[in-house]
Amino acid sequence: MRKTITAIALAMAVATPAMADLVVPNLSYRTGPYAPGGIPYADGFNDYFTLLNERDGGIGGEKVVNPECETAYNTEKGVECYEATKGSGALVYNPLSTGITYQLIPKVSADGIPLYTPGYGRTSAANGKIFEWVFNYPANYWDGASVAIKYLLDQNGGDLSGKRIALVYHNSAYGKEPIRTLQELSKKHGYELIEIPVDHPGQEQKSQWLQIRRDKPDYVLMWGWGVMNAVAIQEAANIRYPMENFIGIWWSGSENDVLPVGDGANGYKSLAMHGTGMDYPVYGDLKTYVYDTGKASGAGDQVGSVLYSRGMYAALVISEAIRKAQELAGHSAITAAELRNGFEALEITEARMAELGLPNFGQPFAASCADHGGPGHALIQQWDAAAKKWNLITGFIAPDDEVLTPLVMEDSAAFAAENAIAERCN
Amino acid sequence: MFYREAGDFKTSYADDSQTFPIRFDRLRYYAVVAVAFGVIPFVINDYWANAVFVPFLIYAIAAIGLNILTGYCGQVSLGTGGFMAVGAYACYKLMTAFPEVSILIHVLLAGGITAMVGVLFGLPSLRIKGFYLAVATLAAQFFLVWLFNKVPWFYNYSASGQISAPERTILGHPVTGAATTASAKYLFCLVILFALAWLARNLTRGTVGRKWMAIRDMDIAAEIIGVNPLTTKLSAFAISSFYIGVAGALFFAVYLGAAEVGEAFGIQKSFLILFMIIIGGLGSIFGSFAGAAFMVLMPVLLKNILVGQFGWATDLAAHVELMIVGALIVIFLIAEPHGMAQLWRLAKEKLRLWPFPH
């Protein structure tokens, strides 16, 4: 029987892209219950690199290739995709899944490939002293949780004592990430935290929202993803929960989450780590070089959406890191280890963002050996159902580093102890 | 021409009762074992280990486990994913609590703990059977997943509820953690699978297995001829859960390295392993291997052909892959309701007569 397998095995030729280019694999998911989030992100990610290839002939004269691999947000498939692509000279991974990120952190550390997880993944990877190969700037979940609470503090004149805040979360590593931060913050600010888990994939939330209707929390925070978001917003509309008191993380704030709910979603808020919409000069170039030439990734119907912008933002940061690495290494055909140096020395200023055609889009940040997490500022956006548009209602809000820094240190120290990692950068 | 008994004389009882009585079959078995132990470890790379061989070996252990319970003893179980989770979490707790003890012992102990849990959830089988038992084991699946999500002690109070395997070595070679080489992973799983499959094969040929089959075929008749349903059913649950627990421990520690219970050990895992034994063949050790190979290899093979060779879009390929695997399962079961093991038996019959079938 093993012979049959061997025979099949021999028939299986694994196609690998050419070694000469800069290989940035796109572990995407366009199928399954998380596809509403995965498709726009993957499209934005691919389109930005296509733009660089078409307009500038790549980065520093080297073309970028993005072999795509379908993970379906599943960790087993994610591991298979990682193993299938890493031999092709992959420079950096961006799996858009906290579960897959947890799988890959030890693997990339052993293989020496950077892992870039903007706004998701393991929060304590912000501590570059422990996590040499992982980068999660400009913001992470704990920043998000803290910004949401700061916003609520602001709304309540600086006092949340006696308030009740419910957290509706995806019952996985992703959804559980903010709990510890919110618990710490509740000690500081005196609110009561109600934890309400929603199991994968989140299409059934009647009982959770019944609980919210009964408990009447003052605010609801949500850490949701995929179909779970739209279902939660629909259920909130059904129980007539005041939408302006319902705030999602940045992964729960895209058009695909609110459009299915129609007018009921009006006033729903979410965090954002960058601007959205098509009022940026970069879209002129994208239209000329990518959309009009028929090179757009996917169906091309996601352009300008929140998650498309985020995929593009991730691609932009990676391309800037590649540029920085080329500058540091003195040659353009960089290796994964050289790219890591690029990530660590990366500084993105507002002037540079404007130069790239995205003025006032994201926050400026600078990485260092110890800081892989960035400043962690976030905005609040609100959905206008009539105009079908997200409106930014605040400027960038800074997280409460006084609470977060000790948490990051504690969690990364636990990881270091488990895996016998010595601190770097000292 | 092949698989002939002619000229293969048995001169002792030991010869007569050996596992593979036909010489050709025996040689084929030795050849497979020789390739598995002597060739593959030297040529295997990370991709082959992580995408194909390690999952295949681990699923084969789980499939043998479920086959003991469902195929041999006739007790339908939908709790496989939950029992794998018990194995994984037991292994994690043991690994982190007693870092100086060998991982092999932890894996076996994890199997032992799962066996106890399995017996507990097997108790209803004494009163109910068939679909009703399936529902009772389904309750085990949901309860266990809920438990591992709910009680932070099981995941050592980590912020994300994830468990991740620290590095552990055998004879100086890491077998868990990121520094593990492809061949170390493969060999570790292979040795365990080989030992467990050998044990299962011999159990099913002996008294224990015959009792299981008697209960499966007609429990009242079995009771009348002196088979104790209590010990028989519970032993099936215990041994089956031991296998599944070992598979769960390896799945977490060696294959994934980090796991969260809802995703890695959800209800879909229970169904996957049930499909493996139905497609492979109920009541057959070979069937467990064939089913595991089919369910692990087909998606990877199709993905490589559709995306790698034909250059299709990944989402289109993923959807077509689901359809093709689904269609193949239906076609297989229409062509041969007893699974791939029966196809193999028929092929052997044909080979014996070939090239002169009449």
Topology of this protein?
The complex is a heterodimer of chains A (426) and B (358).
Chain A: H1 2-11, E1 22-23, E2 26-28, H2 35-56, E3 64-65, E4 68-70, H3 75-86, H4 98-111, E5 115-116, E6 134-135, H5 141-155, E7 164-170, H6 173-176, H7 179-189, E8 192-198, H8 206-215, E9 219-223, H9 227-238, E10 246-248, H10 255-258, E11 269-272, H11 282-291, H12 306-329, H13 336-344, E12 347-348, H14 350-355, E13 365-366, E14 379-384, E15 389-392, H15 401-419
Parallel strand pairs in A: 1-3, 2-4, 5-6, 7-8, 7-9, 9-10, 10-11
Antiparallel strand pairs in A: 11-14, 12-13, 14-15
Chain B: H1 13-16, H2 23-38, H3 40-43, H4 46-72, H5 80-97, H6 103-122, H7 131-150, E1 163-164, E2 168-170, E3 173-176, H8 182-205, H9 207-217, H10 219-224, H11 229-256, E4 258-259, H12 261-264, H13 267-280, H14 285-309, H15 314-335, H16 340-353
Antiparallel strand pairs in B: 1-4, 2-3
How are strands sequenced across the largest beta sheet of chain B? Answer: 1-4
CATH second-level architecture of the largest domain in chain A: 3-Layer(aba) Sandwich
Q: Roughly what is the average pLDDT of chain A, rounded to an integer?
A: 90
Largest interface: A-B, 61 and 56 residues
The main β sheet of chain A shows up as: 7 strands, mixed
The helix-and-strand class of chain B reads mainly alpha
The CATH superfamily name of the largest domain in chain A is Response regulator
* Domain unit count of chain B: 1
The number of distinct helices of chain B, counting runs of at least 4 residues, comes to: 16
CATH topology of chain B: ABC transporter involved in vitamin B12 uptake, BtuC
What structural class do you assign from the helix and strand content of chain A? alpha/beta
Low-confidence stretches of chain A: 6-19
Could you characterize the architecture of this molecule?
The complex is a heterodimer of chains A (426) and B (358). Chain A is an alpha/beta fold. Chain A has helices spanning 2-11, 35-56, 75-86, 98-111, 141-155, 173-176, 179-189, 206-215, 227-238, 255-258, 282-291, 306-329, 336-344, 350-355, 401-419; strands at residues 22-23, 26-28, 64-65, 68-70, 115-116, 134-135, 164-170, 192-198, 219-223, 246-248, 269-272, 347-348, 365-366, 379-384, 389-392. Chain A has 2 domains: 16-140 and 278-376, 3-Layer(aba) Sandwich (Rossmann fold); 141-276 and 378-405, Response regulator (Rossmann fold, 3-Layer(aba) Sandwich). Mean pLDDT of chain A is 90; it is low at 6-19. Chain B has 16 helices and 4 strands. The model of chain B has no long low-confidence stretch (mean pLDDT 92). The chains are: A alpha/beta (426), B mainly alpha (358). Chains A and B meet through helix 1, strand 4, helix 3, helix 4 and helix 6 of A and helix 2, helix 4, strand 4, helix 12 and helix 14 of B.
